[in-house]
């Protein structure tokens, strides 16, 4: 299914001077571009009214289902511009497929992959001048779908709106890449078995806000969640997957369990690591096992990954008063190599052997 996007461009876009000021020091998710992509859905018409329109508020009925029953899903991906000015999206089809899985879990309308990708391409094509080109910088895209039908009965909505907004982005954790500190969360859970952990929906992140704030109060950057019903198996961070380099030649990451989000960056790293000759293991990793491996020196590196932060070294895990690892340890060689290759593919500096980059212009 394909739709033609009507371009209704803003009469008051940001001036070139204002845009240059923003791009000189992009933050993350605080300033947005001039336009957004929007597509509507109803049971009668299906997906329709595809358009690029000025960025601005969305008007919804107070009884819209998204407000009362949480039918909301989203994605995150990036657009990059290389030195020659070529603009590309990194693995948008994978994000589109994950949005479809999230929609199925929350009983929302199925958005075809080509509409998702076309919406992202159309918006990036219009907003190409908003893409920063500094090291690690990009145009972050936030596609999302919300239930818009006005009703208070407990059933799936019959109408939806799909949008894509864009924000010039620098390093997620600010400044140069540095090792982050992670708090081991033992009281709160991000998601549970049989829940929505494998879906990318707002409720998962809402439940993570309190432990994230508590972790920040303890001087940590992020939280790592455990599965207390499975020997305190390590699951994921509040918004990222986690990897361990064991014995210098084995890359280990927690196996997908239904309560762990299947990250696009995670999948990409597994492919790149195997190509580098590293043994790759997706399996259960308990906190006790990690503690023992770290104490023996067998874990040489730990890093987190996700669309926003790409690859970020983890210095230490804080489990109460117990510190596991070195909070000041620099990124190790495996972490650096994987980060550099992944960014190289995204920006066009490294050959795209897997066809992961979708060219926009």
TrEMBL record:
Instruction: Name the CDD domains for this protein.
Output: BCAT_beta_family (cd01557)
UniProt enzyme class: transferase
Give residue numbers for the modification (N6-(pyridoxal phosphate)lysine). Answer: 200
- Name a Pfam family for this protein: Aminotran_4
Q: List the catalytic activities from the record.
A: L-valine + 2-oxoglutarate = 3-methyl-2-oxobutanoate + L-glutamate; L-leucine + 2-oxoglutarate = 4-methyl-2-oxopentanoate + L-glutamate; L-isoleucine + 2-oxoglutarate = (S)-3-methyl-2-oxopentanoate + L-glutamate
Keywords for this protein: Amino-acid biosynthesis, Aminotransferase, Branched-chain amino acid biosynthesis, Pyridoxal phosphate, Transferase
Biochemical pathway: Amino-acid biosynthesis; L-isoleucine biosynthesis; L-isoleucine from 2-oxobutanoate: step 4/4; Amino-acid biosynthesis; L-leucine biosynthesis; L-leucine from 3-methyl-2-oxobutanoate: step 4/4; Amino-acid biosynthesis; L-valine biosynthesis; L-valine from pyruvate: step 4/4
Q: Which InterPro entries match?
A: Aminotrans_IV, Aminotrans_IV_CS, Aminotransferase-like, B_amino_transII, BCAT-like_C, BCAT-like_N, BCAT_family
Enzyme Commission numbers on file: 2.6.1.42
Q: Does the keyword Zinc apply?
A: no
Example GO BP: branched-chain amino acid biosynthetic process
Query: Belongs to which family?
Result: Belongs to the class-IV pyridoxal-phosphate-dependent aminotransferase family.
Question: Which protein is depicted?
Answer: Branched-chain-amino-acid aminotransferase
Which lineage? Bacteria, Bacillati, Actinomycetota, Actinomycetes, Micrococcales
